[in-house]
Amino acid sequence: MELHMDLGAGKHVLVAGGSRGIGLGIASRLAGAAARLWSVSRSPSPHGEWIQADLATGEGVAAVADRLGGQRLDALLYLGGTWERNAFTAAYAFAHGDRAELERVLAVNLLAPVHLVHALLPELRRSPSPRALFVGSLSGLDNAASREVANSASKFGLRGAAQALRRELPWLAVTVLNPGNVATPEVEADIDAGRFGPQVPIPMDDLAAAIGFALSLSPAAVATEINLAQTGSAVGL
Q1: Residue 68: which of 89, 92, 42, 37 has the closest Cα?
Q2: Mean pLDDT over residues 151-156, rounded?
Q3: Which end of the chain is more exposed for a tag (fewer CB within 10 A), N or C?
């Protein structure tokens, strides 16, 4: 059974990071099922109602809150992310990074989703079963950090933020989805170019099925974390 076929059916959904990568792949699947879809990104998104915003800035978060003001929001999907230069390749070196790069990674991956939830609390409260889902990483699991310091720190922090939000806001179901490499055009290009080692990335349909599962649960249940490893990977198994 393909759970992703009904992804977000009848719901009002916001996708942060809807112009590329995982966000674009999920937004394309939501476009035919969600009752209303907002796609937030710096560059144009072809799916849903595009909101141009840099969520790493206070102005960007405020722009989203202004656009949605008074609307019902059933699901907030934070699917954007960034990482250091040369991340996940042999060329990465923490010593070669700078303060601006470290702060940008933490701002996009950790601070932005927390600020966005805070800004959209009134809209989430209008839903009978509101949900927030953050895309983390297997690198954010205990004793599984990759070499990328800022990226790993941001993903660990995202899990902590989600745990705290579930306690502080028990009416909001918060899920963290931690995948390995997903078959986005960007990842497939890195594999083809040899920047990543030979591997079979996780199909986008599998990620959509996991998100569909989290969104389809009744108000009595929440999938707190979903770890999605590549077949044969020692991480997360």
Answers
A1: 37
A2: 94
A3: N
